[in-house]
Amino acid sequence: MNMSIxxxxxxxxxxxxxxxxxxxxxxxxxxGEKKEKAASQTAAKVNKDEITVHQINFVLQQQRNLxxxxxxxxxxxxxxxxxxxQLALQKAEEQKLDRDxxxxxxxxxxxxxxxxxxxxxKLGEAAPKPGxxxxxxxxxxxxxxxxxxxxxxxQEIGIEAxxxxxxxxxERLGAAKNIQDFxxxxxxxxxxxxxxxxxxxxxxLPLNSLDAFARMKDGQAMVVxxxxxMQVIVLAGSRMQPVTxxxxxxxxEAFIVNERRRxxxxxxxxxxxxxxxxxxxxxxxxxxxxxxxxxxxxxxxxAAPAASAPGMSEADISKGxxxxx
Length: 325
What we know:
The protein is an alpha+beta fold and 325 residues long. Helices cover 49% and strands 15% of the residues. Strand 1 and strand 2 form a beta hairpin.
């Protein structure tokens, strides 16, 4: 999860484009004359078919961050694309491509996707907004995101290594005078690695590793095991840039609402599956049976959160790099 949340998503995507297009396309007259207000909703005629303002509006609703001054140009561009699309559609119908089995299958798949997504979106709309106390609580429980928010200058080194090499690499990292000293060791021993540098705000880091970053001091390094070896993350520098409760309130509210929507959908899908009669057939029945047989062997306790995964503890933060002057 990430706190880089698009704020007022529904309002921006649904309300702004409609208002913009209404001003740019429908209300073409400024004198308020009834004749112009009653103008046809047809934007163009393509042979026997019409393209309407409603179709243009629908496309514009999908465009984010559309500014009012861009409405005229955007609506014209959308109209030209719809004309091209309508011409292609007419030719396809002439050639009876709409009856092609592959096309029919794609149309049915799109229909299923649109309708099922509409149901889940409607279900999510029931999620209540958090109250002031909940927002305050979230703010207080995550100081690394808000009150003690930092901007991190990060150096990353991805190292390819066998499992038996990792302990020695950790030891070498802890004993290194600086990161360049450690890199020279990798080169001298023909250990493959790749480096990268980045500047990340607290909310741009994975939420489940943010606390580990917050514990680090400038010049320290974090070791994170990977499937191919290990990753060394060096905090080259950082600066404080706190966020007040008032500044964070819209993002916190949006985040909590989105989490509640996700939970509502997740619980509803689980309930529907529990109530439905689902029968797997053929090879899928064999796979389902194998999965069911393996279930009792799984631990009954919930899995540990990612924040407690290897590489995220104090023991995995090296303190001997000496990068801080």
